[in-house]
Automatic annotation (TrEMBL):
<dbReference type="Pfam" id="PF04002">
    <property type="entry name" value="RadC"/>
</dbReference>
<feature type="domain" description="MPN">
    <location>
        <begin position="23"/>
        <end position="147"/>
    </location>
</feature>
<keyword id="KW-0378">Hydrolase</keyword>
<dbReference type="InterPro" id="IPR001405">
    <property type="entry name" value="UPF0758"/>
</dbReference>
<dbReference type="InterPro" id="IPR037518">
    <property type="entry name" value="MPN"/>
</dbReference>
<keyword id="KW-0482">Metalloprotease</keyword>
<keyword id="KW-0645">Protease</keyword>
<protein>
    <submittedName>
        <fullName>JAB domain-containing protein</fullName>
    </submittedName>
</protein>
<keyword id="KW-0479">Metal-binding</keyword>
<keyword id="KW-0862">Zinc</keyword>
<dbReference type="InterPro" id="IPR025657">
    <property type="entry name" value="RadC_JAB"/>
</dbReference>
<comment type="similarity">
    <text>Belongs to the UPF0758 family.</text>
</comment>
Length: 157
């Protein structure tokens, strides 16, 4: 038909659970939860934890799998699962295979961009955490005061 209008459905499809329920009361707790997952990749990956109003994790979404030293992070892809999960906030995480957790210029730009997009959507970026390969090092943008955050997290109570 010439004037046919297609109807589409958009749904959140749940995958099998990767983790047990765990209280995230610090950036270190976030890293403990996610470090094993992030260490399994031979490339840089970016993922988010979608959060409820009360600070509980709804789910994890692997947003981007990149190259050995970069991953493409587009706000549209980051917030897609957050909107579908009805999240009020997110925590972003990515790995640096080198083990060096110093944020790159691109890391800083992406963080600012995600924070601004989240403000427009009403989904706050609570933290962006860099995990250093398998060496156990981490950097929290929030702890390092590189992120202006209004929302509270459990470890601030």
């Amino acid at each position: 038909m010439e004037n046919e209008l297609e109807v589409v459905n958009i749904r959140l499809v749940k995958e099998p659970s990767l983790y047990s329920e765990q209280t995230l009361d610090s950036p270190q707790a976030v890293v403990e939860l996610m470090a094993k997952e992030l260490s399994q990749y031979d490339r840089e990956v970016f993922c988010i934890l979608n959060m409820k109003n009360n600070g509980q994790v709804i789910n994890m979404n692997l947003v981007s799998v990149g190259t050995i030293n970069a991953s493409l992070v587009i706000p549209r892809e980051v917030f897609k699962s957050s909107i579908l999960a009805n999240a009020s906030a997110i925590i972003g995480l990515h790995n640096h295979l080198s083990g060096n957790v110093k944020p790159s210029k691109e890391d800083m730009i992406v963080t600012r961009k995600l924070q601004k997009c989240g403000q427009l959507l009403g989904i706050e970026l609570l933290d962006h955490i860099i995990v250093g390969g398998t060496n156990g090092k981490m950097l929290s943008f929030r702890e390092e005061k590189m992120l202006n955050v209004t929302g509270r997290m459990d470890w601030e109570r």
